[in-house]
Design a protein that fits this description.
alpha/beta; 7-stranded mixed β-sheet; Rossmann fold; single chain; 280 residues; 7 strands; 10 helices; 40% helix
Length: 280
C-alpha cells in the first residue's frame, strides 16, 4: 500500500464529486477523505466518535443528525457535504443496502449532479437489525441496489464496494440494541459470509471490490475497544487504499510524495485523458 499525501489526493480528485454511503465506519471514511483534501493531519478520536454534528472540518450537515432527533434507530438519517473550489464530497448514512431511503438517494443521483466516484458499504445493520434469517433478504437487496445503480449512474462512474472490516469477539455499538445483543458473538462470522455474497454480487455487476476485511485481518491492534470501530491510523490506511484503487482505475500514476510539486503534476497525469466533470 502506498502512502498518499494531501497534495496527491487533491490532484487526483481535482474537480471530482465523490459520494460515500454507509454506516459509522463509512462516516469515518468520509471524514478522513475530507481531512486529507485539506491537510496531512489525522482524525482525532473525538472526530471519529462524533456523529450528526453541524460541521466537521469545513463541511456542513445537510439534513438529519442534530437537526433532527439523534437516535440509534434504523431510521436515523445524516447527510453531510464538503465543498471546496475544486472538490465535492458527500456522505449519506444508511442502515440498509436497499430501502425507500436508498431509492430517494438514487433519485438524487438521477436528477442532480452525477458522482464520479461512489464508495459504498452496507452490512452490519442489514444482517443484525431487520431479519433473523438475514441471508435471503440481504442477497435480494444487494441485487436490487446494484441493478438500480446500473440504471441511474453513467457508465464512467467508478463504484467501489467496501467489504466489511473484521468484527471483534466481543462487540458493542449503536446498532447493537438490547433486543439483538444475543446475536453479537455470531456477527463476526455472519460478516464473513455476508462479505462473500456481497463481493461476489458486486463483481457480477462489474463493480470494483475493495476487501477491507482481508487488508485489516492482521491489523486488529487498530480496532477500538468496542470491537467494531477503528482508529485514525486505520482510517488513513483505508483512505490510501481507496485513493490508490481510484488512481489505478483511472490509469493515473501516483507519484512519490517526496517529489517536487512540478514533478508531481507531470507524473500524476502522464497519459490521462479522463473527462473531468466541472461542477462549479
Amino acid at each position: 500500500m502506498k502512502t498518499v499525501r494531501h497534495q496527491q489526493a487533491c490532484q487526483l480528485l481535482h474537480n471530482k464529486f465523490v459520494v460515500v454511503l454507509g454506516d459509522s465506519i463509512q462516516r469515518g471514511v468520509y471524514k478522513d477523505l475530507v481531512l486529507i483534501l485539506q491537510s496531512d493531519r489525522y482524525l482525532t478520536q473525538r472526530q471519529l466518535k462524533s456523529k450528526g454534528e453541524m460541521s466537521f472540518e469545513q463541511d456542513c450537515l445537510v439534513e438529519g443528525g442534530c437537526l433532527n432527533h439523534m437516535n440509534n434507530g434504523t431510521e436515523y438519517r445524516e447527510v453531510r457535504q464538503f465543498q471546496s473550489d475544486h472538490h465535492l464530497v458527500r456522505f449519506y448514512f444508511v442502515t440498509r443496502v436497499f430501502s425507500q431511503y436508498m431509492e430517494s438517494i438514487m433519485e438524487d443521483f438521477q436528477q442532480g449532479l452525477k458522482p464520479d466516484v461512489v464508495i459504498i458499504n452496507s452490512c452490519v445493520w442489514d444482517i443484525s437489525r431487520y431479519n433473523s434469517n438475514w441471508l435471503e433478504d440481504y442477497q435480494e437487496n444487494l441485487h436490487r441496489f446494484f441493478g438500480e445503480l446500473s440504471c441511474v449512474l453513467p457508465e464512467e462512474t467508478l463504484v467501489i464496494w467496501n467489504l466489511t472490516m473484521p468484527l471483534g469477539k466481543s462487540i458493542r455499538g449503536g446498532f447493537l440494541v438490547s433486543e439483538i445483543e444475543h446475536k453479537a458473538p455470531q456477527l463476526r462470522y455472519d460478516v464473513i459470509e455476508a462479505n462473500f455474497y456481497s463481493g461476489t454480487l458486486a463483481d457480477a455487476y462489474q463493480r470494483d471490490v475493495l476487501d477491507l476485511h482481508f487488508h485489516f485481518r492482521f491489523s486488529l491492534q487498530h480496532r477500538t475497544n468496542d470491537g467494531v470501530h477503528w482508529n485514525a491510523v486505520a482510517h488513513r490506511s483505508i483512505t490510501c487504499l481507496l485513493l490508490e484503487h481510484i488512481a489505478q482505475a483511472w490509469g493515473v500514476l501516483l507519484p512519490d510524495p517526496l517529489r517536487t510539486v512540478g514533478e508531481e503534476r507531470s507524473c500524476l497525469f502522464p497519459n490521462f485523458h479522463h473527462s473531468i466533470s466541472i461542477w462549479l
